[in-house]
Amino acid sequence: MSFVVAVLILFSLPIARSDDAIPADKSQLGSWFDKNFAGKKPAGGGPPKVIKVGGGGQFKTVTEAINSIPAGNAQRIVVSIAPGNYTEKINIPKDKAFITLYGDPKNMPVLVFDGTAAKYGTVDSATLSAESDHFMGVNLKVANSAPRPDGKRVGAQASAVRVGGDASVFYNCKFYGFQDTVFDYKGRHLFKDCYIEGTVDFIFGSARSLYLNCEIHVIPGDRMAIITANARKDGKEDTGFSFVHCSITGTAPNAVLGRSWFPYPKVVFAFCDISNVIIPEGWSNNLHPETNSTVFFGEFNNRGPGASLEKRVTFAKKLTQAEANPFITLAYIEASTWLLPPAKI
Fold this sequence. Notes:
By secondary structure, this protein is mainly beta. The protein is built from five helices and 26 strands. It has two domains: about 45-185, Single-stranded right-handed beta-helix, Pectin lyase-like (Pectate Lyase C-like); about 190-335, Single-stranded right-handed beta-helix, Pectin lyase-like (Pectate Lyase C-like, 3 Solenoid). The protein has helices at about 5-10, 30-35, 60-70, 115-120, 320-325; strands spanning about 50-55, 75-80, 85, 90, 100-105, 110-115, 130, 135-140, 140-145, 160-165, 170, 175, 180-185, 190, 195-200, 200-205, 210, 215-220, 225-230, 240-245, 245-250, 255-260, 265-270, 275, 295-300, 315-320. The chain has an eleven-stranded parallel sheet with strand order 1-2-5-8-11-14-17-20-23-25-26, with helices on one face. It has an eight-stranded parallel sheet with strand order 3-6-9-12-15-18-21-24, with no helix packed on it. It is globular, with a radius of gyration of 20 Å. GO terms for molecular function: pectinesterase activity.
């Protein structure tokens, strides 16, 4: 490799700034995040345009508001949603970038629908599908109200949200479902201060995502509950899920942090509080021992009764500081190039 080529490759890689590193002390998260994004100018053409749904606003439904936004939009548009229940299947298409759905943090709007894989296919079952780049969800409750899968009905899995656009973020959102609650489809994403509940594979997909200060809640009642099903198919894919300063909660001690849905899943838990809802083995190879050498299931400085590594499966990895560093930084999702703090209206 020539020197010139080597330099070009070096400068094409994302560079982590020192302030990108997530503090090990959870109490410092708020001030650290605010400092990181102080004064950052919004992308999408200056001050946002605000349109209102419900509460006497211009639109009665979120879908009507989305439909009013022109294709090829390049301006940040905040859809301010009044408190209440909105029973609709919401789709934000790829050609409508820079959209924010914004709710009242003290009285969050509820977006709810009962789509299932049997009726729409797994990919399109979600109540909220955000396919555009630079999407932002703030202070929302998103639920799929379809009945809980019972292992007998075909296609009973049902997503609350599917996020497939790049450079997308959810702040202070709550996601409710059973199997397949959050379809973290593809792209670079941040979930910050969110609540996610479910039963089986309830965070799944092929994105490169950082879950920061989220509560991951396991609903009891399954023979085995599974939090993550990462769909990384190839060792060269720059994708995976990183959970930092999250809490893993629930009441039935029969859950695993993740399973080998595809041969090369990459999932890391760092600085997390893990309750005894997680079994001592921690992870599952999904009855595919051939994936034991290809998975990347990492843990770093977690706490709680479910965090003990003493009886972990052999294919789980206790990360060193150096091995954990790429996952405990905003640079993991190249946030310095796109991330904005929550919209304000």
